[in-house]
TrEMBL record, chain A:
Organism of derivation: Rubellimicrobium roseum
Record keywords, A-Z: ATP-binding, Nucleotide-binding, Transport
PANTHER family: ALIPHATIC SULFONATES IMPORT ATP-BINDING PROTEIN SSUB 2, TAURINE IMPORT ATP-BINDING PROTEIN-RELATED
Protein name: ABC transporter ATP-binding protein
ABC transporter domain span: 1-197
Single GO MF annotation: ATP binding
Superkingdom of origin organism: Bacteria
InterPro entries documented for this protein: AAA+_ATPase (IPR003593), ABC_transporter-like_ATP-bd (IPR003439), ABC_transporter-like_CS (IPR017871), ABC_transporter_ATP-bind (IPR050166), P-loop_NTPase (IPR027417)
UniProtKB/TrEMBL annotation, chain B:
Main location class: membrane
Topology within the bilayer: Multi-pass membrane protein
Keyword field: Cell membrane, Membrane, Transmembrane, Transmembrane helix, Transport
GO biological process: transmembrane transport
Similarity field: Belongs to the binding-protein-dependent transport system permease family.
Protein name as catalogued: ABC transporter permease
Gene source species: Rubellimicrobium roseum
GO cellular component: plasma membrane
Subcellular location: Cell membrane
InterPro entries: MetI-like, MetI-like_sf
Residue intervals passing through the bilayer: 12-39, 59-81, 93-113, 173-196, 217-239
Chain ranges of the ABC transmembrane type-1 domain: 55-237
Keyword Coiled coil on entry: no
Amino acid sequence: MIHVDVRRKAFNGREILRDIRLDVAPGERVAVLGPSGVGKSTLLRIVAGVDTAFEGRVDRPDNIAIVFQEPTLLRWRTVLANLLLTHRGLRPEMARAMLARVGLAEKTEDFPGQLSLGQQRRVALARAFVGRPELLILDEPFVSLDPGTAEEMIALTEGLIAETRPAVLLVTHEPREAERLGQRICRLGGSPATLAC
Amino acid sequence: MDGTAAARLTSLAGIVGLWVVASVLTADPLVLPAPWALIEPLVREIGSGELPYHLWRTLVRVAWAFVLAMSIGVAIGYLMGTRPRLDRWLDPWLVVFLNLPALVLIVLCYLWIGLNETAAIAAVTLNKIPNVVTVVREGARALDPELGAMARVYRMSRPAQARHVVLPQLAPYLAAAARGGAAVIWKIVLVVEFLGRSNGIGFKIHMYFQLFDVRMVLIYALSFVVVMLVVEAAVLQPWEGRVRRWRTA
Protein backbone atom coordinates (compact mmCIF):
# COMPACT_ATOMS: atom_id res chain seq x y z
CA MET A 1 0.00 0.00 0.00
CA ILE A 2 1.33 3.42 -0.98
CA HIS A 3 0.15 6.27 1.15
CA VAL A 4 0.94 9.90 0.25
CA ASP A 5 0.11 12.81 2.53
CA VAL A 6 1.78 16.07 1.54
CA ARG A 7 0.52 18.95 3.67
CA ARG A 8 2.74 21.61 2.15
CA LYS A 9 5.61 21.90 -0.30
CA ALA A 10 7.26 25.24 -1.04
CA PHE A 11 10.21 26.40 -3.13
CA ASN A 12 11.90 29.56 -1.83
CA GLY A 13 8.77 30.56 0.09
CA ARG A 14 6.40 30.00 -2.86
CA GLU A 15 3.87 27.30 -2.07
CA ILE A 16 3.59 24.70 -4.84
CA LEU A 17 1.60 21.83 -3.35
CA ARG A 18 -0.93 21.78 -0.53
CA ASP A 19 -2.94 19.06 1.18
CA ILE A 20 -2.35 16.27 -1.26
CA ARG A 21 -3.63 12.85 -0.19
CA LEU A 22 -3.34 9.82 -2.38
CA ASP A 23 -3.52 6.10 -1.69
CA VAL A 24 -2.44 3.58 -4.28
CA ALA A 25 -3.28 -0.09 -3.71
CA PRO A 26 -0.82 -2.81 -4.82
CA GLY A 27 -1.18 -3.30 -8.56
CA GLU A 28 -3.37 -0.22 -8.94
CA ARG A 29 -2.62 2.25 -11.76
CA VAL A 30 -3.14 5.92 -11.02
CA ALA A 31 -2.65 8.70 -13.57
CA VAL A 32 -2.12 12.27 -12.39
CA LEU A 33 -3.19 14.72 -15.07
CA GLY A 34 -2.32 18.40 -15.04
CA PRO A 35 -0.93 21.23 -17.16
CA SER A 36 2.83 21.77 -17.46
CA GLY A 37 4.44 23.59 -14.58
CA VAL A 38 1.71 22.84 -12.05
CA GLY A 39 3.96 20.74 -9.83
CA LYS A 40 3.46 17.22 -11.18
CA SER A 41 7.14 16.40 -11.26
CA THR A 42 7.60 17.89 -7.80
CA LEU A 43 4.91 15.55 -6.48
CA LEU A 44 6.55 12.56 -8.17
CA ARG A 45 9.95 13.41 -6.70
CA ILE A 46 8.39 13.54 -3.23
CA VAL A 47 6.66 10.18 -3.75
CA ALA A 48 9.89 8.66 -5.10
CA GLY A 49 11.82 9.87 -2.06
CA VAL A 50 14.17 12.06 -4.10
CA ASP A 51 12.82 15.28 -2.57
CA THR A 52 12.53 15.13 1.20
CA ALA A 53 12.08 18.85 1.93
CA PHE A 54 8.31 18.94 2.45
CA GLU A 55 5.76 18.84 5.24
CA GLY A 56 3.87 15.59 5.51
CA ARG A 57 4.70 11.93 5.09
CA VAL A 58 4.89 9.28 2.42
CA ASP A 59 4.75 5.51 2.96
CA ARG A 60 6.25 3.70 0.04
CA PRO A 61 7.59 0.22 -0.66
CA ASP A 62 11.36 -0.30 -0.87
CA ASN A 63 11.40 -1.61 -4.40
CA ILE A 64 10.63 1.40 -6.59
CA ALA A 65 11.42 2.02 -10.23
CA ILE A 66 11.26 5.30 -12.08
CA VAL A 67 11.16 6.39 -15.72
CA PHE A 68 11.99 10.02 -16.35
CA GLN A 69 11.18 12.28 -19.31
CA GLU A 70 14.75 11.73 -20.48
CA PRO A 71 16.31 8.24 -20.61
CA THR A 72 18.69 9.19 -17.72
CA LEU A 73 21.14 6.38 -18.43
CA LEU A 74 24.76 6.06 -17.34
CA ARG A 75 26.22 6.97 -20.73
CA TRP A 76 29.68 5.69 -19.74
CA ARG A 77 28.47 2.15 -18.99
CA THR A 78 27.14 -0.44 -21.42
CA VAL A 79 23.42 -1.04 -21.81
CA LEU A 80 23.71 -4.29 -19.87
CA ALA A 81 25.70 -2.63 -17.09
CA ASN A 82 23.01 0.05 -16.82
CA LEU A 83 20.57 -2.67 -15.76
CA LEU A 84 23.00 -4.60 -13.54
CA LEU A 85 24.37 -1.58 -11.67
CA THR A 86 20.92 -0.37 -10.66
CA HIS A 87 19.81 -3.77 -9.37
CA ARG A 88 22.09 -5.49 -6.91
CA GLY A 89 22.05 -9.25 -7.25
CA LEU A 90 20.41 -9.20 -10.68
CA ARG A 91 21.64 -12.12 -12.80
CA PRO A 92 23.04 -11.09 -16.21
CA GLU A 93 20.82 -13.59 -18.02
CA MET A 94 17.73 -11.94 -16.45
CA ALA A 95 18.94 -8.54 -17.64
CA ARG A 96 19.62 -9.93 -21.12
CA ALA A 97 16.15 -11.47 -21.25
CA MET A 98 14.55 -8.14 -20.30
CA LEU A 99 16.59 -6.31 -22.96
CA ALA A 100 15.46 -8.90 -25.51
CA ARG A 101 11.86 -8.34 -24.36
CA VAL A 102 12.11 -4.62 -25.27
CA GLY A 103 13.78 -5.48 -28.60
CA LEU A 104 17.40 -4.72 -27.73
CA ALA A 105 18.89 -8.23 -27.67
CA GLU A 106 21.68 -7.13 -30.05
CA LYS A 107 22.57 -3.96 -28.16
CA THR A 108 23.53 -5.22 -24.71
CA GLU A 109 27.25 -4.40 -25.07
CA ASP A 110 26.73 -0.99 -26.75
CA PHE A 111 27.04 2.32 -24.95
CA PRO A 112 23.80 4.33 -24.72
CA GLY A 113 25.25 7.01 -27.02
CA GLN A 114 25.35 4.45 -29.84
CA LEU A 115 21.57 3.91 -29.63
CA SER A 116 18.78 6.06 -31.04
CA LEU A 117 16.75 8.09 -28.57
CA GLY A 118 13.85 5.65 -28.94
CA GLN A 119 16.17 2.73 -28.10
CA GLN A 120 17.58 4.61 -25.09
CA ARG A 121 14.05 5.03 -23.77
CA ARG A 122 13.52 1.28 -24.17
CA VAL A 123 16.63 0.73 -22.04
CA ALA A 124 15.09 3.00 -19.40
CA LEU A 125 11.90 0.91 -19.53
CA ALA A 126 13.86 -2.34 -19.28
CA ARG A 127 15.77 -0.92 -16.30
CA ALA A 128 12.48 -0.01 -14.61
CA PHE A 129 10.82 -3.41 -15.06
CA VAL A 130 13.77 -5.77 -14.64
CA GLY A 131 13.69 -5.46 -10.82
CA ARG A 132 9.94 -6.33 -10.68
CA PRO A 133 9.15 -3.12 -8.76
CA GLU A 134 6.25 -2.83 -6.34
CA LEU A 135 5.81 0.80 -7.37
CA LEU A 136 6.56 2.17 -10.82
CA ILE A 137 6.76 5.93 -11.24
CA LEU A 138 6.42 7.36 -14.74
CA ASP A 139 7.23 11.05 -15.26
CA GLU A 140 5.85 12.01 -18.69
CA PRO A 141 7.78 9.13 -20.26
CA PHE A 142 6.27 9.59 -23.76
CA VAL A 143 6.69 13.33 -24.06
CA SER A 144 8.50 14.66 -27.16
CA LEU A 145 8.20 11.37 -29.07
CA ASP A 146 6.64 11.36 -32.53
CA PRO A 147 3.13 9.80 -32.57
CA GLY A 148 4.26 6.48 -34.09
CA THR A 149 7.08 5.92 -31.57
CA ALA A 150 4.91 7.12 -28.69
CA GLU A 151 2.23 4.56 -29.61
CA GLU A 152 4.86 1.82 -29.80
CA MET A 153 6.30 2.79 -26.40
CA ILE A 154 2.86 2.99 -24.76
CA ALA A 155 1.97 -0.47 -26.08
CA LEU A 156 5.29 -1.86 -24.78
CA THR A 157 4.73 -0.24 -21.39
CA GLU A 158 1.18 -1.64 -21.20
CA GLY A 159 2.48 -5.12 -21.94
CA LEU A 160 5.23 -4.90 -19.33
CA ILE A 161 2.82 -3.58 -16.68
CA ALA A 162 0.47 -6.49 -17.41
CA GLU A 163 3.38 -8.95 -16.93
CA THR A 164 4.91 -7.47 -13.75
CA ARG A 165 1.80 -5.89 -12.13
CA PRO A 166 3.42 -3.06 -10.17
CA ALA A 167 1.42 -0.23 -8.65
CA VAL A 168 1.80 2.59 -11.16
CA LEU A 169 1.87 6.33 -10.65
CA LEU A 170 1.94 8.17 -13.97
CA VAL A 171 2.00 11.91 -14.43
CA THR A 172 1.24 13.43 -17.79
CA HIS A 173 -0.42 16.44 -19.39
CA GLU A 174 -1.83 14.22 -22.15
CA PRO A 175 -5.39 12.98 -21.32
CA ARG A 176 -5.14 10.13 -23.86
CA GLU A 177 -2.09 8.65 -22.12
CA ALA A 178 -3.75 8.98 -18.75
CA GLU A 179 -6.84 7.14 -19.97
CA ARG A 180 -4.87 4.35 -21.59
CA LEU A 181 -2.51 3.56 -18.73
CA GLY A 182 -4.48 4.68 -15.66
CA GLN A 183 -7.37 2.88 -13.97
CA ARG A 184 -8.00 5.96 -11.88
CA ILE A 185 -7.35 9.52 -13.05
CA CYS A 186 -6.59 12.36 -10.64
CA ARG A 187 -6.23 16.00 -11.60
CA LEU A 188 -3.60 18.30 -10.20
CA GLY A 189 -4.45 21.98 -10.53
CA GLY A 190 -4.58 25.41 -8.93
CA SER A 191 -1.94 27.44 -7.15
CA PRO A 192 -0.81 26.03 -4.78
CA ALA A 193 -1.81 22.83 -6.54
CA THR A 194 -4.27 20.42 -4.96
CA LEU A 195 -5.27 16.95 -6.11
CA ALA A 196 -8.80 15.93 -7.13
CA CYS A 197 -9.45 12.24 -7.75
CA MET B 1 47.39 6.74 -32.81
CA ASP B 2 50.40 6.59 -35.19
CA GLY B 3 49.49 10.02 -36.51
CA THR B 4 49.45 11.57 -33.03
CA ALA B 5 52.75 9.87 -32.09
CA ALA B 6 54.37 11.17 -35.27
CA ALA B 7 53.05 14.66 -34.59
CA ARG B 8 54.45 14.55 -31.05
CA LEU B 9 57.90 13.42 -32.20
CA THR B 10 58.07 16.01 -34.99
CA SER B 11 56.98 18.71 -32.59
CA LEU B 12 59.66 17.67 -30.05
CA ALA B 13 62.27 17.57 -32.83
CA GLY B 14 61.24 21.16 -33.60
CA ILE B 15 62.17 22.24 -30.07
CA VAL B 16 65.59 20.57 -30.38
CA GLY B 17 66.06 22.25 -33.78
CA LEU B 18 65.28 25.65 -32.28
CA TRP B 19 67.80 24.94 -29.54
CA VAL B 20 70.52 24.05 -32.09
CA VAL B 21 69.87 27.28 -34.02
CA ALA B 22 69.95 29.33 -30.82
CA SER B 23 73.22 27.71 -29.66
CA VAL B 24 74.85 28.41 -33.05
CA LEU B 25 73.71 32.02 -32.91
CA THR B 26 74.97 32.63 -29.36
CA ALA B 27 78.18 30.77 -30.22
CA ASP B 28 79.16 30.62 -26.54
CA PRO B 29 78.92 27.19 -24.88
CA LEU B 30 79.00 28.84 -21.45
CA VAL B 31 75.70 30.62 -22.19
CA LEU B 32 73.92 28.00 -24.29
CA PRO B 33 75.71 24.74 -25.14
CA ALA B 34 74.57 22.74 -28.16
CA PRO B 35 72.45 19.65 -27.38
CA TRP B 36 75.27 17.21 -28.22
CA ALA B 37 77.59 18.98 -25.76
CA LEU B 38 75.37 17.68 -22.97
CA ILE B 39 75.72 14.02 -23.86
CA GLU B 40 79.16 13.42 -22.36
CA PRO B 41 78.45 15.05 -18.93
CA LEU B 42 75.00 13.39 -18.92
CA VAL B 43 76.56 9.95 -19.31
CA ARG B 44 79.04 10.83 -16.55
CA GLU B 45 76.26 11.95 -14.15
CA ILE B 46 74.23 8.80 -14.81
CA GLY B 47 77.33 6.61 -14.45
CA SER B 48 78.27 8.12 -11.09
CA GLY B 49 74.71 7.60 -9.80
CA GLU B 50 74.34 11.31 -8.99
CA LEU B 51 71.57 12.03 -11.49
CA PRO B 52 69.43 8.92 -10.73
CA TYR B 53 69.69 9.62 -6.98
CA HIS B 54 68.58 13.26 -7.16
CA LEU B 55 65.96 12.49 -9.80
CA TRP B 56 64.53 9.82 -7.53
CA ARG B 57 64.39 12.16 -4.52
CA THR B 58 62.49 14.75 -6.57
CA LEU B 59 60.15 12.11 -8.01
CA VAL B 60 59.26 10.86 -4.53
CA ARG B 61 58.41 14.41 -3.42
CA VAL B 62 56.35 15.01 -6.56
CA ALA B 63 54.46 11.75 -6.04
CA TRP B 64 53.68 12.52 -2.39
CA ALA B 65 52.55 16.06 -3.10
CA PHE B 66 50.53 14.92 -6.11
CA VAL B 67 48.66 12.19 -4.24
CA LEU B 68 48.01 14.40 -1.21
CA ALA B 69 46.93 17.45 -3.21
CA MET B 70 44.68 15.43 -5.50
CA SER B 71 42.91 13.48 -2.75
CA ILE B 72 42.41 16.44 -0.41
CA GLY B 73 41.57 18.80 -3.28
CA VAL B 74 39.06 16.42 -4.87
CA ALA B 75 37.30 15.86 -1.53
CA ILE B 76 37.05 19.58 -0.75
CA GLY B 77 36.14 20.51 -4.33
CA TYR B 78 33.39 17.89 -4.46
CA LEU B 79 31.89 19.05 -1.15
CA MET B 80 32.04 22.72 -2.18
CA GLY B 81 30.50 21.98 -5.56
CA THR B 82 27.59 20.01 -4.14
CA ARG B 83 26.91 22.04 -0.96
CA PRO B 84 26.22 25.73 -1.67
CA ARG B 85 26.21 26.61 2.06
CA LEU B 86 29.68 25.16 2.59
CA ASP B 87 30.82 26.82 -0.63
CA ARG B 88 29.78 30.25 0.67
CA TRP B 89 31.84 29.70 3.82
CA LEU B 90 34.94 28.19 2.23
CA ASP B 91 35.12 30.33 -0.91
CA PRO B 92 36.94 33.26 0.79
CA TRP B 93 39.57 30.80 2.07
CA LEU B 94 39.99 29.49 -1.43
CA VAL B 95 40.53 32.99 -2.80
CA VAL B 96 43.13 33.71 -0.10
CA PHE B 97 45.08 30.51 -0.78
CA LEU B 98 44.80 30.90 -4.56
CA ASN B 99 46.41 34.32 -4.33
CA LEU B 100 49.10 33.45 -1.80
CA PRO B 101 52.39 33.34 -3.74
CA ALA B 102 54.00 29.91 -3.80
CA LEU B 103 57.20 31.39 -2.42
CA VAL B 104 55.43 32.80 0.65
CA LEU B 105 53.85 29.44 1.47
CA ILE B 106 57.18 27.67 1.05
CA VAL B 107 59.06 30.10 3.29
CA LEU B 108 56.34 30.00 5.93
CA CYS B 109 56.25 26.20 5.94
CA TYR B 110 60.04 26.06 6.41
CA LEU B 111 59.87 28.66 9.19
CA TRP B 112 56.99 27.04 11.02
CA ILE B 113 57.58 23.32 10.45
CA GLY B 114 61.34 23.37 10.09
CA LEU B 115 63.79 22.60 7.29
CA ASN B 116 62.60 19.04 6.78
CA GLU B 117 60.79 16.73 4.40
CA THR B 118 57.37 17.29 6.01
CA ALA B 119 57.63 21.02 5.47
CA ALA B 120 58.73 20.56 1.87
CA ILE B 121 55.86 18.27 0.95
CA ALA B 122 53.32 20.31 2.95
CA ALA B 123 54.38 23.47 1.14
CA VAL B 124 53.92 21.89 -2.30
CA THR B 125 50.63 20.28 -1.34
CA LEU B 126 49.22 23.52 0.07
CA ASN B 127 50.23 25.33 -3.10
CA LYS B 128 48.44 22.85 -5.32
CA ILE B 129 45.22 22.12 -3.38
CA PRO B 130 43.43 25.39 -4.29
CA ASN B 131 43.83 24.73 -8.03
CA VAL B 132 42.50 21.19 -7.71
CA VAL B 133 39.58 22.46 -5.61
CA THR B 134 38.67 25.11 -8.20
CA VAL B 135 38.64 22.65 -11.10
CA VAL B 136 36.83 19.83 -9.26
CA ARG B 137 34.27 22.26 -7.83
CA GLU B 138 33.27 23.20 -11.39
CA GLY B 139 32.87 19.52 -12.18
CA ALA B 140 30.78 18.86 -9.07
CA ARG B 141 28.52 21.81 -9.93
CA ALA B 142 27.94 20.33 -13.38
CA LEU B 143 26.84 16.91 -12.02
CA ASP B 144 23.51 15.84 -13.52
CA PRO B 145 20.87 15.98 -10.73
CA GLU B 146 18.59 13.60 -12.65
CA LEU B 147 21.24 10.87 -12.57
CA GLY B 148 21.62 11.41 -8.83
CA ALA B 149 17.84 11.08 -8.40
CA MET B 150 17.84 7.92 -10.52
CA ALA B 151 20.63 6.39 -8.45
CA ARG B 152 18.78 7.13 -5.23
CA VAL B 153 15.44 5.74 -6.40
CA TYR B 154 17.16 2.52 -7.49
CA ARG B 155 18.95 2.45 -4.11
CA MET B 156 22.46 2.17 -5.52
CA SER B 157 24.97 1.87 -2.69
CA ARG B 158 27.18 4.86 -1.84
CA PRO B 159 30.35 3.28 -3.24
CA ALA B 160 28.50 2.25 -6.41
CA GLN B 161 27.13 5.78 -6.85
CA ALA B 162 30.62 7.23 -6.41
CA ARG B 163 32.19 4.81 -8.85
CA HIS B 164 29.56 4.57 -11.57
CA VAL B 165 27.58 7.82 -11.34
CA VAL B 166 29.78 10.58 -9.89
CA LEU B 167 33.36 9.75 -10.89
CA PRO B 168 32.65 9.21 -14.61
CA GLN B 169 31.01 12.65 -14.72
CA LEU B 170 33.99 14.18 -12.91
CA ALA B 171 36.58 12.33 -15.04
CA PRO B 172 37.33 15.18 -17.50
CA TYR B 173 37.78 17.59 -14.58
CA LEU B 174 39.98 15.12 -12.68
CA ALA B 175 42.10 14.62 -15.79
CA ALA B 176 42.47 18.39 -16.19
CA ALA B 177 43.40 18.77 -12.52
CA ALA B 178 45.89 15.88 -12.71
CA ARG B 179 47.47 17.20 -15.90
CA GLY B 180 47.91 20.73 -14.63
CA GLY B 181 48.73 19.29 -11.21
CA ALA B 182 51.71 17.17 -12.18
CA ALA B 183 53.29 20.02 -14.17
CA VAL B 184 52.80 22.70 -11.52
CA ILE B 185 53.83 20.43 -8.65
CA TRP B 186 57.23 19.55 -10.00
CA LYS B 187 57.99 23.22 -10.60
CA ILE B 188 57.12 24.03 -7.01
CA VAL B 189 59.07 21.01 -5.75
CA LEU B 190 62.14 22.43 -7.47
CA VAL B 191 61.70 25.78 -5.70
CA VAL B 192 61.26 23.96 -2.39
CA GLU B 193 64.46 21.99 -2.99
CA PHE B 194 66.26 25.10 -4.19
CA LEU B 195 65.45 26.89 -0.95
CA GLY B 196 65.88 24.28 1.71
CA ARG B 197 66.77 20.71 0.79
CA SER B 198 70.13 19.01 0.37
CA ASN B 199 69.11 16.65 -2.42
CA GLY B 200 66.83 16.58 -5.46
CA ILE B 201 66.94 18.27 -8.86
CA GLY B 202 66.22 21.69 -7.33
CA PHE B 203 69.21 21.34 -4.99
CA LYS B 204 71.51 20.41 -7.88
CA ILE B 205 70.24 23.31 -9.98
CA HIS B 206 70.91 25.64 -7.05
CA MET B 207 74.46 24.27 -6.81
CA TYR B 208 75.24 24.60 -10.53
CA PHE B 209 73.57 28.00 -10.61
CA GLN B 210 76.14 29.19 -8.08
CA LEU B 211 78.91 27.61 -10.21
CA PHE B 212 77.33 29.25 -13.29
CA ASP B 213 77.30 25.88 -15.09
CA VAL B 214 74.55 26.14 -17.71
CA ARG B 215 75.29 22.64 -19.03
CA MET B 216 74.57 20.91 -15.75
CA VAL B 217 71.49 23.07 -15.06
CA LEU B 218 70.10 21.99 -18.43
CA ILE B 219 70.97 18.33 -17.86
CA TYR B 220 69.18 18.18 -14.52
CA ALA B 221 66.14 20.17 -15.68
CA LEU B 222 65.72 18.26 -18.94
CA SER B 223 66.11 14.86 -17.37
CA PHE B 224 63.03 15.55 -15.30
CA VAL B 225 61.13 16.91 -18.29
CA VAL B 226 61.86 13.60 -20.02
CA VAL B 227 60.53 11.68 -17.02
CA MET B 228 57.33 13.76 -17.06
CA LEU B 229 56.86 13.20 -20.80
CA VAL B 230 57.17 9.45 -20.20
CA VAL B 231 54.63 9.60 -17.35
CA GLU B 232 52.27 11.56 -19.58
CA ALA B 233 52.56 9.11 -22.46
CA ALA B 234 52.63 5.93 -20.36
CA VAL B 235 50.07 6.73 -17.66
CA LEU B 236 47.89 9.79 -18.19
CA GLN B 237 47.08 9.37 -21.88
CA PRO B 238 46.13 5.67 -21.77
CA TRP B 239 43.98 6.36 -18.70
CA GLU B 240 42.23 9.25 -20.39
CA GLY B 241 41.66 7.16 -23.49
CA ARG B 242 40.06 4.42 -21.41
CA VAL B 243 37.65 6.70 -19.53
CA ARG B 244 36.73 8.49 -22.76
CA ARG B 245 35.99 5.29 -24.66
CA TRP B 246 32.21 5.70 -24.28
CA ARG B 247 32.32 9.12 -25.98
CA THR B 248 33.98 7.87 -29.13
CA ALA B 249 32.30 4.44 -29.37
